[in-house]
Design goal:
By secondary structure, the protein is of the alpha+beta class. The protein folds into two domains: 132 residues, Beta-Lactamase (2-Layer Sandwich); 111 residues, Orthogonal Bundle (Arc Repressor Mutant, subunit A), CATH 1.10.10.60. Helix 9 packs across helix 10. It is globular, with a radius of gyration of 21 Å. The N and C termini lie far apart (59 Å).
Length: 254
């Protein structure tokens, strides 16, 4: 049996002998609930498992290489992801069990748990980061701080395209409207109506990736009173009009 020092040397030799074209992360392609990604110090994608790149409509890993979150996600989400990335790059410390509500491949809002760790070179300098994203069902045990609002969130997930009153949500979790609002602020940093609006905008982003979707129909289907209100809310959250956002994906597919 190898001694501890010998084992460490064996490990270093093994790692130094690994070729650059040996993508260990392809192992995640056999774990369908987990997506893997790696980024350089500029927060650009340097590696991605199939689950990750197919989530954005790409057919191969090569198509997503070099892109950053602002090319892949709505602006508000991209800013959140970038902040977490920069914290890992600056401190060299992992960011674990980050929780976000986002849309799965079926277009249904679901919880995701993300872990991010630094990537270091042989000199120990942080040169990037790598991470995994797990679906809600895969990591439900890590969501306990959010489960006190689970019935309200489930109701929102099922009805966010409709008009939802605070009173109806409060009844789901047996709280007063005021208590519900405070609980949402404590848990998510925004009130329930802002949470619902964010979900509608995320859904619009998903739908507008299809260049054949009619903008007016998208807005109406998500509960906006007219196209003007939809455009105003979308631009406020994403920084682009719905038409400008849709054109990005039309150009990508051309």
């Amino acid at each position: 049996m190898a001694q501890p020092n010998d084992s460490a040397q064996l490990r270093r030799r093994f790692l130094s002998d690994i070729g650059a074209d040996t993508p260990f992360y392809q192992l995640f392609e056999h774990l369908p609930d987990i997506a893997f990604f790696a980024k350089d110090a500029g927060c650009r994608i340097m590696g991605a498992s199939r689950v990750f790149y197919e989530r954005f409509g790409f057919r191969s890993e090569e198509e997503i290489l070099g892109k950053d979150d602002f090319e892949l996600f709505p602006r508000t989400l991209a800013e959140t992801f970038r902040k977490d990335d920069e914290a890992v790059l600056a401190t060299g410390e992992a960011r674990l069990n980050l929780v976000e509500l986002f849309f799965n491949q079926q277009g249904v809002p679901d919880w995701y748990v993300t872990n991010k760790l630094p990537v270091r070179n042989t000199a120990g300098k942080v040169i990037g980061l790598m991470g995994t994203t797990h679906s809600y069902e895969a990591r439900k045990t890590h969501l306990r701080p959010f489960l006190s609002l689970e019935r309200a969130i489930d109701y929102i997930r099922a009805h966010f395209r409709e008009r939802i009153s605070i009173e109806t949500l409060a009844q789901q979790v047996h709280l007063s409207p005021r208590q519900l609002h405070r609980k949402f602020i404590e848990t998510f940093g925004v009130g329930p109506q802002a949470f619902i609006l964010k979900l509608r905008i995320q859904s619009a982003c998903e739908m507008l990736q299809n260049p054949n979707e009619q903008i007016s129909e998208v807005g109406a289907g998500l509960g906006f009173c007219d196209q003007s209100a939809f455009t105003q809310a979308f631009h406020k959250h994403i920084g682009l009009t719905p038409r400008q956002y849709q054109m990005q994906f039309r150009l990508r597919r051309s």
